[in-house]
Design brief:
This is Glutathione peroxidase. Belongs to the glutathione peroxidase family. With 170 residues, this protein is of the alpha+beta class. It has a single domain, classed as Glutaredoxin, CATH 3.40.30.10. Helix content is 27%, strand content 16%. The chain is built from four helices and six strands, in the order E-E-E-H-E-H-H-E-E-H. It has helices spanning 52-63, 85-96, 115-124, 156-167; strands at 18-20, 27-29, 37-43, 68-74, 134-137, 144-147. The strands form two sheets. Strands 4-3-5-6 form a four-stranded mixed beta sheet, sandwiched between helices. Strands 1-2 form a two-stranded antiparallel ribbon. The longest helix is centred in the middle third of the chain and has 12 residues, at 52-63. It starts with 17 loop residues before the first strand and ends with a helix.
Length: 170
């Protein structure tokens, strides 16, 4: 008799999208993150909040083994990410040591936002008003909480919310 193998979690509708990766623009499905807690952030290289990359990377390293995935979406919506994808990838890697998954530059605000961001805004009731807006998505992909730019990655409010979702059983 063969041991039972757990089936991978079904892909929630929120994650049923694919986007090009930042580093090589190969298409990558968000479904691979089903069952994880996600912290989704629109990023920019030339913003007063760009140093939040440090805190985002520390969160990813600290909580990754427990199921947190930080996902970055560079955007020039606020005119602070003018570079091409290769430049952005190099900046993130060499300046901040970013290892968390990042996708190619895209629109994250307004009616032209990518479909994932449109759903995040719909589920949370808030759209990004500036760079480094954060969405925290539970393991089921059904609940989304929004955190404005000013909430730093390692603020007690955000860390507490992350820990509660990591501790919750699906």
């Amino acid at each position: 008799m063969m041991p039972a193998v757990a089936a991978p979690p079904a892909c929630p509708a929120l994650l049923d999208h694919a986007f090009p990766r930042l580093q090589d623009e190969a298409s990558q499905s968000l479904c691979q993150y089903a069952g994880k807690v996600l912290l989704v952030v629109n990023t920019a290289s030339y913003c007063g909040y760009t140093n939040q990359y440090d805190g985002l990377e520390r969160l990813y390293r600290k909580y990754g083994a427990r199921g947190l995935v930080v996902i970055g979406f560079p955007s020039n919506d606020f005119n602070q990410e003018p570079g091409e994808n290769a430049e952005i990838a190099d900046f993130c890697r060499t300046t901040y040591g970013v290892q968390f998954p990042m996708f190619a530059r895209s629109t994250v605000s307004g009616p032209q936002a990518n479909p994932f961001y449109l759903k995040l805004a719909d589920l949370s009731g808030e759209r990004p008003r500036w760079n480094f807006h954060k969405y925290l998505v539970d393991r089921s992909g059904a609940r989304v909480t929004s955190f404005p730019t000013q909430v730093s990655p390692e603020s007690p409010i955000l860390v507490g919310a992350i820990e509660r979702l990591l501790d919750a059983r699906p």
